[in-house]
Amino acid sequence: MRLIDARDPIALWQYAERYLGVGTRTYSPYAADLDIADAYHPQRGAATFEVPTFRVPPSAGVFRTAGHPSPLPALYTGGDGFLLPVHPNALDAPDLAGAGVLARLARGPSLTVVPSANARTVFVTAIGGRPVEPHFVKLHYPRRLSRFTRRLRRPVIELQLWVSDELLQAGTPVLPEVGGGWFGPHPTLDDGFADDQDAWGFLIRAARPAVAAPAWTVPLFALYGRDLHAPADPPLLEQLVDAFGEDPATFVATRVVAPMVRMWCATAAATGCPLETHGQNTLFAFDSRAKRTKVLYRDCAIYVDSALRAARGLPGGLPPANVIPRDVPLAADEVFSLTYDSFMGHHALSYIAALARTTWGIPEAVLHDAARAAFTTPALLPDTVFYYDNVLYDNGDWKLVDTGEPPSWR
Fold first, then answer.
1. How many CB atoms lie under 10 A from the CB of residue 212?
2. Which of 289, 314, 347, 400 is packed most tightly, with the most Cβ within 10 A?
3. CA–CA separation, 229 vs 227, rounded Å?
4. Dist CA 241 CA 118 (whole Å)
5. Residue 238's Cα: distance from chain center in Å?
6. Phi, psi at 144, each rounded to 5°
């Protein structure tokens, strides 16, 4: 893809999500695993596909909005109940809770969507054939994508709405989660739900942050990934450096590395929530004419350190999932290392550094130094790097091990 050929910010974003990730999922033996039909696959599927919706009455589900005002929830509500979008590969999953009850609900208008890189979160471009404000929906997906089965149950929906509001209050440049709903259990039917915590649903995510940002946006991995359809084209990062006319080392250090580190540190210190700033969740917004850039974040399914929040005297209680140590019985600094050292450092910044080295001869130490200069929360992390053990657990569990490696990016 050639940046000079891009005419529409949304079209570029959609293309980047689907096709600019070649070579970016080598950080884990499971990273490229996608249990999804070709018709809905980000790389193999058609330009768009249809996601069916079901009209969920108040007796069979709940819809919630976040604190951030948005017109998007109105697209899914009105009258009794709400529209529940369900991924086609969730509908045909053998263990979809409530499938019998769902099949008896009235159908609503389908969503016309474009898959994003993680497959189960999709761009919505139309509802019932009518164009709508571009936005995302994150869907329940009871199949494995990378390391985990991607169910989206009630506690995590409530978690994401809660975290989104916290991040917005802290000034984090996040794409807001503005609403969501869950289906089940039905009060009078044997519907396959274990309890109300087993209810599942969807989230609505805005495509623009609440803060000012340039209009052109791509996932971070699109800066260093190769183009599936044009593998000889230079990576987007190289094209952006040329377009800005800046020293490559300065561009990468001051516009990519340092802003990512500062965003992670500021958010963790202010909220007790360690952002998972890997290549998919981190976004890079830019305007090559105005020479403006901004690092953004998406996806609020992250962890919450209850002790840090208590020590800061933060209000707002705690969400129903992902709280350390109530729900995650691990030391908080180990979980923070997973997100900072492994997700951001190893899974994202190391790829940026490798491209900078091979393209411009920039020593990795230059970018390591930029990260260390921007890093402000040493008390929150351990002396060594923690990461997952190399096991896939049937119950979705995960464990961390001390790699013994010193951190490179702090």
1. 10
2. 347
3. 5
4. 27
5. 24
6. -85, 130
Give me the pLDDT at residue 374, please.
Answer: 98
Query: What span, in angstroms and rounded, lies between the C-alpha atoms of 42 and 221?
Result: 15
Contact at 8 Å (CB) between 369 and 262?
no
pTM higher than the cut 0.85: yes
Task: Give yes or no for a contact between 103 and 110, defined as CB atoms under 8 angstroms apart.
Answer: no
CA angle 363, 369, 375 (to 5 degrees): 145
CB 216 within 8 A of CB 283: no
Distances from the Cα of 294 to the Cα of 133, 156, 277, 298, angstroms? 22, 28, 14, 13
Report the distance separating Cα 341 and Cα 371, nearest Å: 11
- What six digits make up the tokens of 131? 């164009």
Is cis: bond before 325, omega within 30 of 0? Answer: yes
Q: Which helix (H) or strand (E) holds 306?
A: helix 306-312
Average pLDDT over residues 359-384: 98
Neighbours of 409 (CB within 10 A): 24
* pLDDT band at 188; cut points 50, 70, 90: low
